[in-house]
Amino acid sequence: MPSLMPRLARLNNLAEGRMRGLADEELMVRVARGDADAFDLIYERHADAAFSLAYRISGSRAAAEEVAQDAFLALWRNGARYEQSRGSVRNWILGIVHNRAIDALRRAVRHESRRAGDEGLAERLMAPDRTDEEVSRRQEAGTIRTLLDDLPTDQRRVIELAYFAGFTHTEIAEMLEIPVGTVKGRMRLGLDKLRLRMEISGVTA
Amino acid sequence: MSVSGPRYCGNADTAGAYVLGALPEDEAYEFELHLAGCARCQRDIHHLSGAADALASAVPMVSAPPELGDRVRAIVRAEAELLQAAGPAADRPERKARGGWRSLRPRIAVGGTLAAGLACGLVIGAVTLGGSSVSTRAISAQVLQPGVAHDASATLSITGGRGTLEVSNFPSPPAGRVYEVWELGSGKAPRPTNALFSVNSRGSGTVAVPGSLHGVREVLVTAEPLGGSLVPTRSPIIAANTQA
What is the pTM of this model? Predict the structure, then answer.
């Protein structure tokens, strides 16, 4: 009689293979039911993006790790709150990371010093592309960075100060010594242009 | 509420600040009230969100450290085991929702005596996870301080002899103090570590216990002056028995 173990191993591999074929949205249904294997796959697919955003905002490896861990555990514990109609799983995760990283930044109130220390980490830890999808995402990310860089400086500046540094429009207005209305107008114009140029370039978030 | 659809809305510029998270809380709240009834702003938010989302995915990509994945997966595995042990009626381990962990405790408690009415948490179990490459025990620690929120909890996860302490619903350390991790070995005096931590606005915090836990009976936490102490100046607020 053949051993049971190889058959079980084959069944496990089959199950894992099927799971890998599931879309993020399908995996999130399982995560909401407490399926740790489904969570593993979600983590595998989005950990680099989540850590990268946390690092871009916090400027330190330790803070980025804390934010990313916090965000993924929140996803695990609140998976049932994900609503497909409100966007992709990736954007949902990055939204959680963004909120938490900005919260941490605002609490820390050390905008001046937070970039010190880990400068250059991005170059040292540049994530390798493992799949075609990652290659495609990296290319799109590069395109979006170019489009952002091409915005008029005053518009790009207020967008980056708000999104990556966590300043409110009133703080930015004080910093740049311009009216709050001007700050809001530049944000709006910059985002409009970015969106339009993304559409022309055929890239999506 | 009926939804209007003007060609122009005076809040048009506010939509940009909103999707960037640049509105102070009170203004964000006011805008959300407006948003509920303004189709124009709803369309704007939908349109501009695409650009704001793009900012998140356009950052230079760096690899998440492998140890981050090990930690996150170990905690998730441990919680999944606890959920499974608690049965289908158990709530998800979201600690703020409808009892969360509290609803699990009576079902999976394996022992632990409350310390003279002070303890508000108790040892709820140790789960050993046999993975292909990592074995993790998740130990729920005693929370020993009167006045701490009744749903405060602390979990020590031990993977490969190394520990990570995670607290939830915890108060911030008193002004001028920071939480410090101590190890209690065979002697009576706790050994100081350089692990100092605080909690975020939601009362969550995570700290790695330095070094190996080999020979460590208990992991303790006290609130110490900023910079830490060599000898505890206060009673422990957390006690995790590594042999539980």
Answer: 0.58
